[in-house]
């Protein structure tokens, strides 16, 4: 069994729940009501706010803040300096802490470096958000999203490979089908 590792410069507030095998690196801060699963990696300068949930095997790269209201399921990858928001219309002089919107990042999703995820949406299973993309609406499972605002450019497999017209993963051979505008893995 892997042990929990917390770097000496990291701050983990009392009450935080962190699973075995997780590594919390330099200058990171985990708030007291955060829940982090097993075998996660929090890179340098990561903030995990109260009432956030990270599943098992979540990788959070350097300089990412996971704010209250964000739930990341198992096997999520959060790229360097990507951004979550939690208020739709923030103002310094207006307290909107009771208006935090929930954001759900489903199993196996990847969010690229410097991407921005506007609060109150759901990212579908195994979707891939390109570097620098700005996500303002829900994303379908397996969708490849790029641009500002983000648009769907194609589909990706569970391993993250871009799918061609045959909808067969070039890395694993897994076969997919389009049904009702959604991509589904065959024989799952």
From TrEMBL:
GO molecular function terms attached to this record: transferase activity
This protein's record includes keyword S-adenosyl-L-methionine: no
Keyword entries, A-Z: Transferase
CDD domains on file: LbH_WxcM_N_like
Top-level taxon of origin: Bacteria
Family, as annotated: Belongs to the transferase hexapeptide repeat family.
Protein known as: UDP-2-acetamido-3-amino-2,3-dideoxy-glucuronate N-acetyltransferase
Organism: Tangfeifania diversioriginum
């Amino acid at each position: 069994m892997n042990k929990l590792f917390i770097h000496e410069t990291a701050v983990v507030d009392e009450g935080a729940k962190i699973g075995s095998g997780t590594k919390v690196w330099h200058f990171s801060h985990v708030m007291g009501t955060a829940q982090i699963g097993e075998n996660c990696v929090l890179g340098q300068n990561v903030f995990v706010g109260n009432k956030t949930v990270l599943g098992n095997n979540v990788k959070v790269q350097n300089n990412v803040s996971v704010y209250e209201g964000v739930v990341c399921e198992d096997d999520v990858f959060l790229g360097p300096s990507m951004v979550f928001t939690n208020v739709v219309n923030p103002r310094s002089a207006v307290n909107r802490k009771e208006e935090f919107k929930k954001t759900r990042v489903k199993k196996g999703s990847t969010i690229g470096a410097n991407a921005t995820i506007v609060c109150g949406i759901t990212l579908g299973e195994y979707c891939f958000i390109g570097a620098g993309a700005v996500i303002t609406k829900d994303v379908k499972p397996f969708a490849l999203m790029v641009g500002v605002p983000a648009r769907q450019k194609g589909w990706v497999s569970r391993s993250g490979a871009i799918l061609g017209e045959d909808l067969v993963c070039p890395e694993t051979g897994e076969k997919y089908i389009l049904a009702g505008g959604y991509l589904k893995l065959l024989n799952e």
